Amino acid sequence: MTVLETERLVLRPLTGEDFEDYAEMLADPEVASGLAETVSTGAADAWRSLATFIGHREIRGYSHWALVEKATGAFVGRAGPWRPHGFPGLGVGWCLSRRHWGKGYASEAGRAAVAYCFAELGADEVISLILPGNSRSIGVAERIGHTHLRDTEYRGQRVHIYGQRAEGQPT
């Protein structure tokens, strides 16, 4: 899987070595509650979540990357392309450790992921599923160029679908 770099981040494949940081991130109830893919705050669910993203990469050839802060080498979170079985399109998602909220890292990684989807995966449309009321993720979606497209139900939850079309594609 491709490694990307932005101004402040390295986006590299998630590995088992990320588990402790990943589990710590998902142990925060405020982080976990914002995810469209429901996960509890326990280590066992964090393990399954990490394994799902790594497995997705094996099946699809792409997945969320680990976000690593260039200046410190710290694990920031995860972000990237995503299309598990039953997902309503090629998605881009993000999840950051709360100590890294407010630094613009989600938007920075989200823009890189959207560009990757269009340039490398040949996407016509890239979407993000966001829980109603998650104003932080709605703000990220808007900053990366997404607009609200529609609402749907996904895995028993009502979600907003934000997204954007490739240049030259009809809306």
TrEMBL record:
One of its GO terms (molecular function) is acyltransferase activity, transferring groups other than amino-acyl groups. The keyword Transferase applies. SUPFAM superfamilies: Acyl-CoA N-acyltransferases (Nat). Keywords: Transferase. Residues 9-167 form the N-acetyltransferase domain. This is GNAT family N-acetyltransferase. The lineage of its organism: Bacteria, Bacillati, Actinomycetota, Actinomycetes, Streptosporangiales.
